[in-house]
Amino acid sequence: MGNSLTCFSEKNQNSKIRKSNKSSSIRRRSSINGRRLPVAPPPPCISRSTSRKSDRIYPNSSRIDHEDGDSYIREQARVAAALLLQHHHQNGTLGQFERSVSLRDPLTCSARKQKRNIMPRSSSSRARSLSDSLPHHHLDRLLHQGTNIEEVKNKHFVLVHGGGFGAWCWYKTTTLLKESGYQVDAIDLTGSGAHFFDSNNITTLSQYVKPLTDFLEKFDHDKKVILVGHDIGGACISYAMELYPSKVSAAIFVAAAMLKDGQSTLDMFSVQLGLNNLCQRAQVFRYANGKNHPPTAIDYDKSLLKEVLFNQTPAKDVELATVSMRQVPFGPLTEKLSLSATNYGSVPRFYVKTQDDFAIPASLQEVMIDSNQPEQVFQIKGSDHSPFLSKPQALHKILVEISNIPPKMNLKTI
């Protein structure tokens, strides 16, 4: 563009204007009393400053010199780059923006080259810090609020799905938490999600929860996780809390089975028998060992899936669930938990109620809350049984809020 603008330089323009004024003055002559008037000399040409120290824009001027126009273009480019940079700041894609060479301010290229000579060019060649994974606007807010970044770094969520679901169901929650700077792991329990195992052959809770207990077994002893359980995942995280209380900083039950010592999931869910015919009609029992033996798994009637589990969930997520859900092993539902005040009772518990839940109605959730009171109860209005799909932002806000609650509190025992 620089070469194309040289023909419109100020020097050439002033020369053309002076020649035009001179020829016009010669042709235009007026007479007074028959005498011709002398030709008026052309007005003096006052050149504009060519200093580049200021890139001002003059909105009240009838024209902009081409040199100023060039400055104007550079100014607009800076504004556009600043807006794009702000967009990447807000969406957590700053790293991609910085690596791009398609949009750069030419005035700062040399400074960036010097910086690259000092700093590693790619993050893959150095240890990744929390500030790399934290979007800048989140990091700025945390620093402004005086939050200790090391404390945030140690906040690690482990998400445990409910019956028939899998790690896939948490994809919105996982994304939001990671964008907020948290570490997140979503677990596929045995025979669920991408874990290939026949649900009919899962007979015990320990067998069903093994992927979770294996994860905690290998987890660093000097770190802790926040367990989040949904549906029968509540019984699963309770089982893990009893085994590894020192590795769990908090437990969050999302429309989940929150049981007492000596209770099974089937014991708790039997409370709603006769109260929720829709849920019972949607359940299909499987008898891999024959009808003369107890059920081996529970499946869902696909035609009733949306009405029971996803009545507030977007259609595209319902389709995802329809092709992703698997059978629920029956054996683990019948196993009574052994929970102690020393282990399970030492972990702070929080409950998240789902108001428009047709699978585990709010009334049943209240029964569990009243009989085994947690530290605090949260509520999501307009949520079905799957808030991670129907109300992901609201659930995310609650999870982050719980993660910031100080650990110093009087723990309730069972």
UniProtKB/TrEMBL annotation:
Stretches with biased composition (Polar residues): 1-12
Stored InterPro entries: AB_hydrolase_1 (IPR000073), AB_hydrolase_fold (IPR029058), MES/HNL (IPR045889)
Domain AB hydrolase-1, first and last residues per copy: 157-395
Domain of life per record: Eukaryota
Annotated spans, Disordered: 1-69
A Pfam family that the UniProt record links to this protein: Abhydrolase_6
Regions of compositional bias (Basic residues) in chain numbering: 16-30
Cited Gene3D superfamilies: alpha/beta hydrolase
Protein name per Swiss-Prot or TrEMBL: AB hydrolase-1 domain-containing protein
Organism, as annotated: Datura stramonium (Jimsonweed)
Lineage of the organism: Eukaryota, Viridiplantae, Streptophyta, Embryophyta, Tracheophyta
